[in-house]
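Input sequence (672 aa), recorded before submission:
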Amino acid sequence: MIVNNSTVKHHSGIINRNWQYKNKKQIQKNCLIPISYSIPDNNSILSFKGIQITAFSNLAASKKISFMGYPVHIVDGSNHASNVSHFAKAVEKNMDIEMHNVEVNPKDRNVKQLKSLEHELQLLNESTTLKKGDYVAVPALATVPLLNLRDQINSVTGHYLNLTHQTVKTNKAQILDFLKEIYYNPDRYRQNIDYMDPLHQGIEYTWGVINELNSLKEKGAKVYIPAGHPHDDTLKWMAGQRGLKPELYHFIATGEDINGVVDEMASEIKRNNWYDFNLLSLSEANVVTVKEADGAQDYMFAAYDTCITDGARGVYNFSPVRDKESNKVIGYSYTDTETNEYPFEEFPANDEIENLVKFVGRDINEVLADKNETELLKNNPEAAPEDKLYKVKDLFDEQTINAKKLNIQGEYTDKSLKLFFRTNKDNKVIFPKCDCEGSGKPSVLSMWGSCFAVFNCIAKDIKYRENQKLKNNTLEIDDYEKLAQKDEEKGEYGGAEYFYGKILEILYSKNAQDDEKLKILEKMAFVLLKQDKFHETRNCYNTLINLNSAKLIRECGLQKRQNKTNNIIDSIIEKEKINALGEDGYKKIANYNKNFDKENNKKRSQLELKIAMHYSVVGDLCSKAGENYPAKVCKWASEEIIKGSQYGDKIIQRRAQNDSYIGDLYDESHKG
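Predicted structure, token format:
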């Protein structure tokens, strides 16, 4: 949501609305709620939640406040784009995401076509919407094995480069020269290009993509790309060739390397320099690899070449989120098992994981087949229920279990006998092959990769910027408050108003605690009243009523006083004839409440007294403006709150929710 200084919108949506009081003519609700009003064009505006006031005209104009998040441009395509955009919102709410669609490879939809990527980056470079400090995430790879890259460079340039993960940055200039050569002369080097590009991704456009990335960086954008996964495909291929896939997935899920086979394969890959390198890492962008969850070390499939500049967590289990009553899956979560971060209807692959979703995350006792159902699967498989899991040891003999390595795949299987499951410490069903975190968190997909790490790095940078902003704003608040107090002491209330307004801008922009806002709002109300700015003062007091009402309910609840207490307060009100500004009467009530609250909550009565007095002031200001009906309503509200009556409680409850309409309550109380 955007909030700016020209059209301020209250977060509750109650500004600039009109209300029809029952049996009364329609009147504008500005006596009971904060409203917007027209301001001369030559005046600056100080805007904050619930109040809009004209700035002191001979001072510098205030900065524009925006409640937008940080702009993040994601240049991606297909389902991958949807996945990372939902993930980005899950890990950092302050991202204001704009998608830029890239064509994907028809053979592998996770691969981006580089010609299309170059074009989208060029459009972004030419766009007037891109600003300095904006984030640009390009979750794309242009991957070539280093040995292959070395051979093609040698063939095209005649130079032999010793390319390893340690020397790739040292040879950056020569590699870029090679990429530039094939970019401008693709037909001449078509055979070399095809050797590097079996999927026809358009590897010849790499140099153009790198140029666009560098141009974005020069414009002041914060550009992030993934480093890739140099061993992923090779390790999985080797495991498949050697019959070690069960051991590999067991290692990923548990960290247990049976007979050291995974370490042996990984070491062989490194010894032979089988390293798949992302050519886009040669740009000036931030190149991000995957770290373990604690950030202490690289993930097993993480890149580790010398072009890498940053790292973050990029491994997440993708958990089904169920409705607590119906148990129906309503979405998915990256970060836990309850927060719906990817609604079911928005996820494009529900059908593909249907056989997992019906089991994963459920209590094993809900889905475990009984003895009769197990026998049915063994003797008449077609008649066996599909919504049950079966114990592996009840279906297979020990020899088969060992031969097929079923013991390391799972303890339960479904009717197909192809999917294997376990339970975690909470007795919930998990699918080990998708437990890429190794946490036991129920998962139906392994969401991992340096693309996810990219968004955690952006989130980390946003948090740093937010912390710096808070630090700077704290210093500004102290400075502004001192300036405001000096002007107050000199009777220059316009200057004090300006400085208090600046403080409120800061407090609302950083979503500060209500207590901080209340302190400054009370001071603001005083200096506004001193200038006879009755309209602005009324707005200020209405905001105070809302915040104090919310504070009362949040910290104290709404406990009604005993009847004898109400009677005593009624008598004080009657005796003192309390009017809109009858402070003596309020003081007597406060003294009584002080004694009463030895048995009750002192804070509650103090807050009630504050709210009542604020209503009293608003009523008095309405009277000064000739708005008699609103003045009556405000005075009545003040008395009901002081009495602790049922109506008083209802008024506070409404105001706590930023609902300022109480005319119906007044009319109801005066029926007959």
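Checked by second reader. The chain has three domains: 18-65+490-669, 70-230+451-460, 338-444.
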